[in-house]
Amino acid sequence: MRMPVSVAIVVMLGSSAGSVSAQSVIVPPPYSKAVSLSGPRFGITTLSQGVVDELAKRSITVGSSISQFGWQFEKEFYTRQSGVAALNEWVFLLGGMDQGVVLPSLSWLVGLRTREGAEFGIGPNVTPAGVALAVAGGVTFRAGSLNVPMNVAVVPSKAGTRISVLTGFSLRSR
Questions:
Q1: Domain range spanning residue 57?
Q2: How many domains does the chain have?
Q3: Which of 95, 135, 136, 151 is least enclosed by beta carbons within 10 angstroms?
Q4: Considering all CA atoms of the chain, what is the largest pairwise distance in Å, rounded to the nearest integer?
Q5: Is residue 17 part of a domain?
Q6: CA distances from 146 to 5, 116, 131, 143 (A)
Q7: Are the CB atoms for 86 and 34 separated by under 8 Å?
């Protein structure tokens, strides 16, 4: 049986309108769950002779290795179902207190961490020795809500290279 043309047009428009309205509904992504992994950091930094010399030009006398104490402000701001998380970190350290000086250092790092805890970050670093690019990597060990990061950072600059080994802890909180 043949359908009249007017009925066929209404049926076609009705089905098209249904699919258009279904396509035009915009479903926003779920809210991200930011996780704070901030906590104290401590360790040691080795300085190349060029960095020691640059600091000496500024009347700062230190040896080739200095202590580091500080705080890392870290937010995990995006996590995939695979467990890979995007990170934003601000690391503020005071170095050289073991030698009677206070050398502030500020790094801003963005990076990734895997479900297993391997991590990598990169970003700018500012110290009395100058401005440089910090590249860091490491692993975070977990025991319940306690996180223990073990990181190595390499900071090459015009003056020379700094290599830091840092650890600390944080409690996973939302």
A1: 35-171
A2: 1
A3: 135
A4: 99
A5: no
A6: 71, 14, 33, 5
A7: no
CATH of the domain at 159: 2.40.160
Nearest partner of 112 among 139, 87, 75, judged by Cα: 87
The mean pLDDT value for 87-107 works out to 96
pLDDT digits (tens, 9 = 90+) for 2-54: 555 444 444 444 544 455 555 568 877 666 566 677 899 999 999 999 999 99
- Partner residues linked to 47 by β-bridges: 162
For the four alpha carbons of 97, 98, 101 and 107, in that order, the dihedral sign comes to negative
| Residue with the two structure tokens 């995939």 | 80
Alpha-carbon distance of 41 to 164, in angstroms, equals 11
* 25/111: higher pLDDT: 111
* Residue 67 maps to a domain: yes
Pairing of strands 39-47, 130-143: unpaired
Q: Say how many residues make up the chain.
A: 174
With b meaning 16 or more CB within 10 Å and e meaning fewer, what string describes 126-163? ebebbebebbbebebeeeeeebebbbebebebebbebe
Neighbours of 20 (CB within 10 A): 10
Question: Which three-class secondary structure state does DSSP give residue 112?
Answer: strand
Q: How many CB atoms lie under 10 A from the CB of residue 25? A: 6
Q: What is the pLDDT of residue 27?
A: 78
Fill in the DSSP letter of residue 33. -
